[in-house]
Design goal:
- The chain has about 450 residues and is of the alpha+beta class.
- Among the domains are: about 60 residues, Triger factor/SurA peptide-binding fold; about 100 residues, Chitinase A, domain 3 (Roll), CATH 3.10.50; about 110 residues, Chitinase A, domain 3 (Roll), CATH 3.10.50.40.
- The chain has 17 helices and 11 strands.
- The protein has a 4-stranded antiparallel beta sheet.
- A hairpin with a 2-residue loop joins strand 5 and strand 6.
- Helix 5 packs across helix 8 and helix 8 packs across helix 17.
């Protein structure tokens, strides 16, 4: 038989949509295979061979999983595990696990489709560009690298689209099940783990005046005086690293005496009571141990209950593409709004009547005080580059087209708020993972799943 598969193009198109009745697909296969077998013996053999090139492995509600789809995913996963040096289990185990993965994906994608969850091409491309950028590549280089690894860019692109859709569905369905109480946050912050995660970190400098184990009293006194002199220099304003390089006997002397960032729970034993009490750049008194006299200094600190953060008071107008508004139409609208504001029209009034962000639109587009990391990268980058009182030009984020105006900036102590938010995130993530596992089991149990290939059917014990 030739390389051409004798399946009418209409069936190929039907399969590509995959949002059809699985029973209807089976009937189509039956009709076409019956017609082929009614022809000559040669045609019958060709039809049979064509059928063997692909077949339905499983029916999942109104979707089907084809053998070719299973094989493609198995190949991709085996290639990835091989590149990572991960030992592979037997093929039958890999295939069954991958089929189970495809079934669970199918259930979620059908739920997402019915809920109207979509990922537009523009958002997908932006995500791929971010993935490429995180790997220090351009999108073209990323595509070339996939090809070198035996992966299809088109397949990878669609798989990422599927994962984005599933992620949005999961967040929508599972988030509503998760609740973190104020008391749980307080308990977490009071626990040892909470203190470790959210406590202050110190950037520590260390200088050692060494002593031998059997040093004489005179040698000890001389070393102590040397240490006191070093402390005096540091208190007079000498650079810690410069002094450490010149006078420290410690292992980190040539690194400027830098021990690096340490959480409170990771502080050296001799420093646990001393470091938290020091101000930035304040040297400790000389501390005597068996190895000599130690001088410690907090060169910087971060986290804990005091964190100074620069916040931005900003307002914006969002025009989002939709099923009834194309990307070009959205861009045209935002451009006209920009021209009107530059021409003297009131920003707040235009935001109220035009912005697709319903929450901020009520307040004339105000987003209140924004903390770094709170907004998507494109928005935050534009906000940082815009001066107080200035209006940004229209720009695109994953949500659509924006204009923003920076109203003011301030430095705020956000330590307590950040600690609380970090605790909430940790607790939410834990509960989310638990609820997600339960939810996936629920939706799978509620779905109609029929394994058509006996090879993958669970055998009764």
């Amino acid at each position: 038989m030739n390389s051409q598969v004798s399946i009418p193009s209409s069936i190929s198109i039907l399969f590509s949509s995959r949002k059809i009745s699985a029973l209807f697909v089976l009937l189509l296969f039956t009709c076409f295979s019956g017609a082929a077998l009614a022809e000559s013996d040669t045609d019958a053999r060709q039809a049979t061979q064509a059928q063997l090139l692909d077949k339905i492995v499983a029916i999942v509600d109104e979707d089907i999983i084809m053998l070719s789809e299973l094989n493609e995913r198995v190949k991709s996963i085996k290639n990835r595990l091989s590149r990572q040096g991960t030992p592979l289990p037997p093929d039958d185990i890999v295939e069954k696990r991958v089929l189970d993965q495809l079934i669970l994906e199918s259930v979620q994608l059908q739920l997402a489709y019915r809920a109207g969850i979509r990922v537009p091409d523009e958002q997908l491309t932006e995500t791929l560009e971010n993935i490429a950028r995180s790997n220090q590549m351009t999108l073209a280089q990323f595509e070339a690298q996939l090809s070198l690894e035996g992966e299809s860019y088109a397949s990878a692109r669609e798989q990422i689209r599927r994962e984005m859709i599933m992620s949005r569905l999961q967040k929508r369905e599972v988030d509503r099940r998760v609740r973190v109480t104020e008391q749980e946050v307080k308990n977490f912050l009071a626990s040892k783990e909470g203190r470790t995660r959210s406590g202050t970190e110190y950037y520590i400098g260390h200088i050692l005046v060494a002593l031998s184990e059997n040093a004489s009293d005179a040698a000890v006194a001389q070393a102590e005086q040397r240490a006191e002199n070093i402390v005096s220099e540091l208190r007079a304003g000498e650079d810690f690293s410069k002094v450490a390089v010149a006078k420290s006997d410690g292992r980190q002397a040539l690194d400027g005496g830098i021990l690096g960032w340490r959480k409170e729970s990771e502080l050296p034993t001799i420093a646990q009571d001393i470091i938290p009490a020091l101000a930035i750049n304040e040297p400790s008194r000389p501390i005597r141990t068996g190895s000599g006299f130690h001088i410690l200094s907090v060169l910087d600190k971060r986290g804990g209950q005091q964190q100074l953060v620069e916040q931005t008071l900003v307002r914006h107008i969002l025009i989002a593409p939709s099923t009834i508004r194309t990307e070009a139409e959205a861009k045209e609208i935002i451009d006209k709004l920009y021209e009107r504001i530059v021409g003297g029209d009131d920003f707040a009034e235009l935001a109220k009547s035009n912005s697709d962000d319903p929450v901020s639109a009520i307040d004339g587009g105000s987003l209140d005080w924004v903390t770094p990391g709170q907004m998507v990268p494109a928005f935050e980058q534009t906000m940082e580059q815009t001066k107080i009182g200035e209006l940004s030009e229209p720009f695109r984020s994953s949500f659509g087209w924006h204009i923003l105006q920076v109203m003011d900036r301030r430095t705020q102590d956000m330590g307590e708020i950040i600690q609380t938010n970090q605790a909430q995130q940790v607790l939410h993530r834990r509960k989310y993972e638990e609820e997600l596992a339960f939810w996936l089991l629920e939706i799978k149990d509620e779905a109609f799943i029929e394994i058509k290939d006996p090879k993958y059917q669970t055998k009764p014990e």
